[in-house]
TrEMBL record:
GO terms for cellular component: cytosol. CDD domains: TyrRS_core (cd00805). ATP binds at residue 238. This is Tyrosine--tRNA ligase. InterPro entries: aa-tRNA-synth_I_CS, aa-tRNA-synth_Ic, Rossmann-like_a/b/a_fold, S4_RNA-bd_sf, SYY-like_C, Tyr-tRNA-ligase, Tyr-tRNA-ligase_bac-type, Tyr-tRNA-ligase_bac_1. Belongs to the class-I aminoacyl-tRNA synthetase family. TyrS type 1 subfamily. It comes from Oleiharenicola lentus. It is an enzyme of class 6 (ligase). Its EC number is 6.1.1.1. A motif ('HIGH' region) lies at residues 41-50. A motif ('KMSKS' region) lies at residues 235-239. PROSITE patterns: AA_TRNA_LIGASE_I (PS00178), S4 (PS50889).
Amino acid sequence: MSDFISDLEWRGLLADCTDLDGLRKRLATGSPLTVYCGFDPTGDSLHVGHLMGQLTLARFQRAGHHVIALAGGATGMVGDPSGRSAERNLLTREQLAHNIACIKAQLSRLLDFTAAANPARLVDNADWIAPFSFLEFLRDVGKHFTLNVMLAKDSVKSRMEGDGGISYTEFSYQLLQAYDFFHLKKTFGCELQIGGSDQWGNLTAGTDLIRKKLGHEATAWGWTFPLITKSDGTKFGKTASGAVWLDSQKTSPYRLYQFFVNTEDAKVCEYLRKFTFLSRAEIEPLEAAHAANPGAREAHRALAREVTTLVHGADALAGALKASEILFGGSLDGVTEAIFNDVVGEVPTKDLERAKLDGPGASIVDLIVLAGLENSKGAARKALEAGGVYLNNVRIPDHTRAVTSADLLFGKYLLLRKGKKSYAVLTVK
């Protein structure tokens, strides 16, 4: 168990712990620990920023511990002020129930809910918080907290210092999360809550409540992992087109793969440690190879392969790799329309009237100009004569080549390429 903690530290997964020495001693007993992490179901998909919590839970489960994923059906209706500058929109119970069902499917990729010895649990805090009356909550929970302590929490102070302030609703969030920890301690013997470093105030509220209600000898720890940021300090998991989701319908496996394969050089080794289950013996050679030749991108590809497989499975990884090969001149044999559609979104696309492909077909020279790969027919002919033009990743040696409906991919696409990297797609209408 000491090796387990050391591995988490080596991976950079420890920002703070309420009593690390005490936790080490507890783990040294060899008895499995029960640990939980909460996920507020404010949407019907988690995003890559949530992977830290899921993966850390999964590491505990793989080490033989009991893990609980808590879906905040109750706290999700209130909204956590941590890391936010404005109050979130409140969701209905029906919206939350739908979101929780969707999220469980994503959690099942990383957590084993059917393990014989230590199956993961998914719980909804609405089950025990919803029946609580306001007066009961004030009496049984609220009386254990002073305003001085609550106001000192960073998540509260930062909001109070902002223009919008903080509502009593969000101010109460730390009490609800504290009660979650107490309930799980009492019901399942849960001793450890994990979360991002912005959750420190909420975690310590939980350990305080447990000791006040159960006595100072009660064991309870809070463990935070660092929030992941880019090198410039901006939020991890955002792209120009928005968040990178774990739902394949929102962010395809190909786009997830591309997100991680394009990780900035300065962060790729850190992400290998934090976002994969590769061992130290597997990661350190990748780090050495990256230091020697970052341009080879060996570490980037390993990271993207591992994360895509964890989130979507081996078949989805194969599809993502196939899609990636298309933009490097790979064969289109066996490519599905879904995979090709992912690629279409990566390159300039122009419309083409289907009628132009009828009869003798359209001139390849005209299509090169239409696609914007060359500015004139003369330049297009020169590119063709030089052997630098490809239709559907097959070289076109003849500038007199006619393009017909028989050349269409999936009955509606033409993929044109000039040189190694200039791509365009024509979509027939």
